[in-house]
């Protein structure tokens, strides 16, 4: 900028005026240049912030209902077999590497209460799960869903997470709990006791009937 000012047309005859003009030109150009530098930086920062927020939000999973049924029922049946046999090796092997950190003995401890209650999950194979949390991809890339089987007399509630391993979903976490299931019969209304009058009863009186004049004839 300074070099181009010094090469101006009449800078030799008026060096002081030329120097002053160049100084004014530099002073007027510097703020605009700084502003153009700040604006792209602010825009890039805002774009990065928006991208980070978007990446931190769960997004719907691209999986159809048949895929959901296969994932959910396969895990529930594997858990049922493990509870009935006491051997959790197969359930462990079906999990992701993160799930396999749990030993078969540790899994037996976690699901001991189901064995003690003799929980039978085999009947869930003929029921369709009702989802309370639609399949979604968490920020870490895991598939997360939750729901329940409308079983009776106890309803089976589940929450499952899966991790991608070699282009397939492997179970990462299992949570199963029971709650009262099926429609509840309404409580029968309590019959109200009849109210007894506190006033004393009136004494009977002799009825006065009109005399029929034809009766005496």
Short description:
The chain is about 40% helix and about 20% strand. By secondary structure, the chain is of the alpha+beta class.
Features:
alpha+beta; Nuclear Transport Factor 2, Chain: A; five-stranded antiparallel sheet; disordered N terminus
Task: Tell me about this structure.
The protein has 217 residues and is of the alpha+beta class. It folds into 2 domains: 2-56, no CATH class; 60-180, Nuclear Transport Factor 2, Chain: A (Roll), CATH 3.10.450. Helix content is 39%, strand content 19%. The chain contains 6 helices and 5 strands; from the N terminus they run ααβααααββββ. It has helices at 2-6, 15-56, 65-85, 89-93, 104-110, 112-116; strands spanning 59-60, 130-137, 143-149, 154-165, 168-180. Strands 1-2-3-4-5 form a 5-stranded antiparallel β-sheet, with helices on one face. A hairpin with a 2-residue loop joins β4 (154-165) and β5. The longest helix is centred in the first third of the chain and has 42 residues, at 15-56. It is flat. The termini are far apart. Residues 1-13 and 15-29 have low confidence and may be disordered.
Overall structural domain count: 2
The main β sheet shows up as: 5 strands, antiparallel
**Under the CATH scheme, which class of the largest domain?**
Alpha Beta
CATH fold-level topology of the largest domain = Nuclear Transport Factor 2, Chain: A
Low-confidence stretches: 1-13, 15-29
**Could you give the order of strands across the largest sheet?**
1-2-3-4-5
Name the helicity range. Answer: 25-40%
Residue share in β-strands: 15-25%
């Amino acid at each position: 900028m300074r070099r181009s000012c010094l090469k101006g047309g009449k800078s030799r005859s008026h060096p002081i005026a030329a120097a002053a003009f160049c100084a004014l030109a530099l002073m007027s150009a510097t703020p605009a240049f700084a502003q153009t530098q700040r604006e792209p930086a602010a825009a890039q920062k805002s774009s990065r912030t928006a991208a980070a927020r978007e990446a931190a939000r769960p997004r719907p999973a691209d999986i159809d209902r048949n895929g959901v049924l296969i994932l959910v029922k396969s895990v529930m049946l594997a858990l049922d077999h493990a509870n009935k046999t006491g051997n959790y090796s197969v359930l462990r092997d079906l999990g992701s590497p993160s799930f396999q950190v749990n030993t078969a003995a540790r899994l037996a401890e976690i699901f001991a209460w189901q064995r003690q209650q003799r929980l039978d999950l085999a009947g869930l194979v003929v029921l369709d799960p009702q989802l309370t949390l639609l399949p979604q991809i968490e920020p870490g890339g895991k598939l997360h869903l939750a729901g329940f089987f409308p079983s009776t007399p106890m309803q089976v509630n589940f929450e499952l997470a899966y991790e991608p391993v070699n282009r397939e979903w492997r179970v990462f976490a299992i949570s199963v709990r029971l709650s009262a299931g099926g429609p509840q019969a309404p409580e029968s209304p309590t019959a109200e006791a009849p109210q007894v009058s506190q006033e004393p009863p009136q004494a009977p009186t002799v009825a006065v009937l009109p005399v029929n004049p034809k009766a005496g004839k």
